[in-house]
Write a structure and sequence with these properties.
single chain, 155 residues, alpha+beta, Ribosomal protein L11, N-terminal domain, Arc Repressor Mutant, subunit A, 2 domains, three-stranded antiparallel β-sheet, two-stranded parallel ribbon, 6 helices, 5 strands, 44% helix
């Protein structure tokens, strides 16, 4: 029976430190190999925290990785080239992202989002822009959401 270890690592920068070493050491796997594999599979998410599940077979000491996707907020902040969201998102705007970027992020997250259609998933990403203090193509995301919902109702 496989043992699962869940960790949150910075993309491409996992280290065999206390977190991974203490969790994997007793299972008898080569922690260095695990770290190398995690870094290989998460390098495209550099600068973002990525959820990773490590499944270890204690009998054979083999492992497999399941790399998750960074949260929508992290993807939006990377797109806006910002470190963190606004402390006052209702009154303070920290940056702007394009609608094309919103749609790319919605597609990348795919089934992680709750919307049934691509449009609903994109609306969910736009909703995250509200809480981060980001505009979408220079427009307030709340106004954009109202427009999109009204346009959908008119169809």
């Amino acid at each position: 029976m496989a043992v699962e270890v869940s960790v949150l690592v910075e993309g491409g920068k996992a280290a065999a430190g206390a977190t991974l070493g203490s969790a994997l050491g007793p299972l008898g796997v080569n922690v260095g190999q695990v770290v190398t594999k995690i870094n290989e599979e998460t390098k495209q998410f550099a600068g973002m925290r990525v959820p990773v599940i490590i499944r270890v077979d204690p009998n054979t000491r083999s492992f497999t990785l399941v790399v998750g996707r960074p949260p929508v907020a992290a993807l939006l902040l990377k797109e806006a080239k910002k470190e963190k969201g606004s402390g006052k998102p209702k009154t303070e705007t920290i940056g702007d992202v394009s609608l094309a970027a919103v749609q790319r992020i919605a597609e990348a997250k795919g089934e992680d989002l709750h919307g049934r259609s691509k449009e609903e998933q994109a609306n969910q990403v736009i909703g995250t822009c509200v809480s981060l203090g980001l505009t979408v193509d220079g427009q307030d995301p709340r106004a954009l959401l109202k427009e999109r919902v009204a346009a959908r109702g008119a169809r």
